[in-house]
Amino acid sequence: MQDHPVTQADRAGAPAGRIIPTDPDALLYQAEVAYLTAQSERTLEAYRLKGGGPPFIVIGKRGVRYRRGDVQEWIAARRRRSTSDPGPAPGALK
Length: 94
Known about the structure:
Number of helices: 4
Low-confidence stretches: 1-12
């Protein structure tokens, strides 16, 4: 398996000391996405059930992974300039 470049932020505090790859096509575990998004794993599970979270990939019956690029896009789509900024119109988010 090829090593991917990582940022300094990915080295500090990564789940179980794991280095989180920066490759946008890398598949991440739920714990890694929880760390990157500052959400709990339970919140990510609720997003998968109700919608509203980053896109995910199901591998087998219980394997859930997230493409890092999708997570980064999900985070970027929630960026606001002020508390009164409504963000994109409903349906504009993928």
